[in-house]
Specification:
The protein has 7 helices and 7 strands, in the order βαβαβαβαβαβααβ. With 254 residues, the chain is of the alpha/beta class.
């Protein structure tokens, strides 16, 4: 029960394959009470169905591109729970057409959308949850190797992840005096809704399985268990870090 008595807000659950859901499931197992958000009515039913597996969940709509929505969402979670001990930022988006062809052909609008939703939303969220982390806490976001290296068909999302990872370091410095830790998990490829928009994704899974030291792909449980460590007091002296959960693939330099 590593998170017993803690209250957390998790953004980015879309369906049972979402990395954010893997984290929510693990956090619930460890005793946390959770608030989940959904983006738009289309995803509401799916998120509510998943939340029914949790104990006393709070399910709220939240559009991270809207300051008013972020204000309302965080305030409602804080007022309901009394405090927020951890936040998981699992939100990312880029237009499908921006993940094809050359990065140099990225449109201005496509760049702005990807950076706003995938990177700036983390900073906007951190600013709002800070007052509710009265006894310190943990912020955790999800990134990917494409923010560090060129990955085919990742394009502007890789640039957005690089901005997100840099934001983690700056936020760690800003929030550290309040004992709020900020870290990122860089998960290897997993079959998620977001991954379905990347061309040749099945080939990526094959390459990682073949070349990683553990000779396998990761799954939601791997991500969830790693996240629990960074949301719990076990990681109380770790902040500003990007931690890879990818069966060791990133260390191979391939």
């Amino acid at each position: 029960m590593l998170l017993n008595g803690k209250k957390g807000l998790i953004l980015g659950v879309a369906n049972k394959r979402s990395l954010a859901w893997g984290i929510a499931r693990a956090a619930h197992r460890e005793g946390a009470r959770l608030a989940l958000t959904y983006q738009g009515e289309r995803l509401r039913g799916s998120v509510e169905d998943l939340a029914s597996q949790l104990t006393e969940p709070l399910v709220l709509p939240c559009d991270v591109t809207s300051d008013a929505d972020l204000d309302r969402c965080v305030a409602q979670v804080g007022e309901t729970f009394g405090q927020i001990d951890f936040v998981v930022h699992g939100v990312a988006f880029a237009k499908r057409e921006e993940l094809e062809g050359r990065y140099v052909d990225t449109s201005r609008e496509g760049f702005e959308v990807a950076l706003d939703i995938s990177a700036f939303s983390m900073t906007a969220l951190a600013r709002r949850v800070e007052p509710w982390m009265k006894n310190g806490g943990a912020l955790l976001t999800l990134t990917y190797l494409g923010g560090d290296r060129v990955i085919p068909h990742y394009n502007v999302m890789g640039v957005a992840k690089a901005a997100l990872e840099c934001s983690v370091r700056y936020l760690a410095v800003d929030l550290g005096p309040k004992n709020i830790r900020v870290n990122a998990l860089s998960a290897g490829p997993v079959r998620t809704l977001a991954a379905s928009g990347i061309s040749d994704f099945p080939k990526m899974l094959e390459v990682v399985k073949e070349r990683s030291p553990l000779q396998r792909n990761i799954d939601l449980d791997d991500v969830g268990d790693a996240a629990v460590f960074f949301l719990s007091d076990l990681s109380r002296a770790i902040t500003g870090e990007v931690i890879f959960v990818d069966a060791g693939f990133h260390n191979m330099g391939l």
